[in-house]
Amino acid sequence: MKKGFVALVFIFIFFTSFVDNEFKISKSLDIFFNLFKEVNYNYVDDVDPEKMIKSAIDGMLKSLDPYTTFIPESELEDFRFQTTGQYGGIGALIRKLDDYVVIAEPYKNSPAAKAGLKAGDKIVEVDGKNALRKDVSDVSESLKGTPGTTVEVLIERPGVEKPLKIKILREKITIPNVPYYGIIHDSIGYIRLTNFTTDAGKEVAEATNSLKKRHARYIILDLRNNPGGLLSEAVEVVNCFIPANQLVVFTKGKIKEACKQYFTVNDPVDTIIPLAVLVNRGTASAAEIVAGSLQDLDRAIIIGQRTFGKGLVQSTRPLSYNTQLKVTTAKYYIPSGRCIQAVDYSHRNEDGSVGYIPDSLIKEFHTKVGRKVYDGGGIVPDIKTNYERLSDLAFNLYTKNYIFNYATLFVQKNNSIPLPEKFQINDYIYNDFIDFLKNKDFDYKTKTEEHFNNLVNIAQKEKYFDIAENEFKALKDKIKHDKQKDLITFRPEIEKIIADEIIGRYYFQEGKIRYNIAYDKEIDTTIQVLCNKTKYLNILSGKENNVSQKDYSNENSDSEFDE
């Protein structure tokens, strides 16, 4: 009798809660509809109903998390590209430069490259339509189209007097998930994985097989700055190094369909070869599944910086008028049982901001052999390395296109350069770059100078500046940057950016990767660990533990979360 009464009470509470929720939905929709109707009718100026509704939808979804978004029909093609890595177009990266969009980098063997487009070409017209002051997205949309169709662009090329009219035959463009793999040091195999679109697992398997045939005794899987992608492809990548029937990831959501387990299903490529995975703050989502699963299963050592911490799963739902909703439906958990989501969107602050998972809620988990790992956000590497930040000078030279423009002029004067591994910025090239800057109205502010200016403004408002004016002036002189001196001080990092930009003009994306490998300190560290069999095995067995709960503390995070 008592059990029956409890069950009856539970059913009553559930039904009451359901009815109450349905009433809230109906009430809210009624208020919204009437508000929209009144604004549309009474507002002093004409309003665009579709634009208003889009803004309302975006604002509503933003209150949930950054990954739940509305996809209008006009953006469906871009969404498909994000999941498949394929689109119809000319095959080139483009960027904004002053009032025009320019070719930043044609893909190797792409229609753009075959037609003769070069980095630095300014797009003046597309199919006869003026491209002046157009956004990158608008120009990109004009260049894309059904494979087999043509597009005609009018471009201005530095060093060429008259504009050039070029007709390009669009093709199906496929962006590889693995832009480069090879033997980089004796018997060290290297695989760069940049995305998780369709066939990512297949490409990693092919790269691994090829490296083994070339007698690779170790493999480095580079997932740095990989934003993730398809969950299924993450499982396929893990399956390259883990046997079949092994749990890789599982998801938990509100509805039954969102709760799933994902196992490896194929025979692996190799389960023995020593494996290291490189990660950083830009490693997210599916890339974190791979790194975290291989760590939990004690199959690889993880090297780098703490990863981003995106443990949320999105699914797409069809809506009316060929639109879609990309909605967060679950959180994912790797084999040890930990969730790597770093930001708690379910508990916002009073001002609407979000925070990291508090340290008090971080829990301990264990890998397959019993090593301690923790949740609370991201994958903490077994061996931590420092992230090298660019100086303010180098950052400004890059973002303000001075290095890009110099590379364009360099190509005009040089028909060829040495192989990427052998190319260097010598004194002649660097001094030429400095001379190039002399004719430009170029300057920048350091973070110290920006904070100093803020301090002066506050001191003036609070009326402290006058009584310490001499001290402020003295301090300003001491911290003022010296542009010419900084060009010498920060030459090593500026050289790398210049070389990277120049090499891309001759050897495309693959050349850039090959060049950077030679100067990558984290790869050097990884090689040392892989070649030290005792250290490698000690880390995987737990005999050498470089990670503690403190490393998972969000108070010590070295990066701010950008919503």
Question: What this model shows, in words?
Answer:
With 563 residues, this protein is α+β, with helices and mostly antiparallel strands. The protein folds into three domains: 89-174, PDZ domain (Pdz3 Domain), CATH 2.30.42.10; 180-382, Alpha-Beta Complex (2-enoyl-CoA Hydratase, Chain A, domain 1); 392-526, no CATH class. The chain is built from 17 helices and 23 strands. It has helices at residues 2-42, 49-62, 76-84, 111-114, 136-143, 200-213, 231-239, 286-296, 392-399, 402-413, 427-438, 447-461, 469-479, 483-489, 491-517, 521-531, 533-541; strands at 69-71, 86-89, 92-97, 100-106, 122-126, 129-130, 150-156, 164-169, 171-174, 180-185, 188-192, 218-222, 247-253, 260-263, 275-279, 301-304, 312-318, 324-333, 343-344, 355-356, 364-366, 372-374, 383-384. The strands form six sheets. Strands 3, 4, 5, 6, 7 and 8 form a six-stranded antiparallel sheet that branches. α10 packs across α15. The longest helix is centred in the N-terminal third of the chain and has 41 residues, at 2-42. The relative contact order is 0.09.
Helix content: 25-40%
The CATH class of the largest domain = Alpha Beta
CATH superfamily name of the largest domain?
Answer: 2-enoyl-CoA Hydratase, Chain A, domain 1
Alpha carbon gap, first and last residue = 53 Å
Number of beta strands: 23
Mean pLDDT: 89
Strand fraction equals: 15-25%
CATH topology type of the largest domain: 2-enoyl-CoA Hydratase, Chain A, domain 1
Quaternary state of this entry equals single chain
